[in-house]
């Protein structure tokens, strides 16, 4: 029952962004929303053998453009994708939150719940967005390090 409800939410999300409700798009949304970490295209490819690389690239690009997902880079410079907050719009993301890169497991976490101070820039600068990164150990890797 929960799966059907989630599927309907994804269909409504695609409809709201004027995107066709295709199986591959719904599958990508399902995979990304189920993850607790940002996910790279190669990682998605490895679990979605029924969606070719070009189709997946186009889906991710369309979702990013529409404000459904956002791109964040890991420590190796690889693009990873995570679901956007509900207030993102087409061509204008509002994902100004901390991105935490774990130096051990290499996962990228979106820490949406942290309250960040407002960004104040010198006169003449007009921000269109910003990305804030932190590196260190995630809770799982930190716990493993303590046991050693």
UniProtKB/TrEMBL annotation:
Molecular-function GO term, any one: zinc ion binding
Required cofactor names: Mn(2+); Fe(2+); Zn(2+)
Keyword annotations: DNA-binding, Iron, Metal-binding, Repressor, Transcription, Transcription regulation, Zinc
Binding residue positions for Zn(2+): 102, 105, 138, 141
Protein name: Fur family ferric uptake transcriptional regulator
Family of this protein: Belongs to the Fur family.
Organismal lineage: Bacteria, Pseudomonadati, Bacteroidota, Sphingobacteriia, Sphingobacteriales
InterPro entries: FUR, Fur_C, WH-like_DNA-bd_sf, WH_DNA-bd_sf
One Gene Ontology biological process: negative regulation of DNA-templated transcription
Binding annotation for Fe cation: 93, 95
SUPFAM superfamilies membership: Winged helix' DNA-binding domain
Comment on bound cofactor: Binds 1 Mn(2+) or Fe(2+) ion per subunit. Binds 1 zinc ion per subunit.
Key word Chaperone present: no
Pfam families: FUR
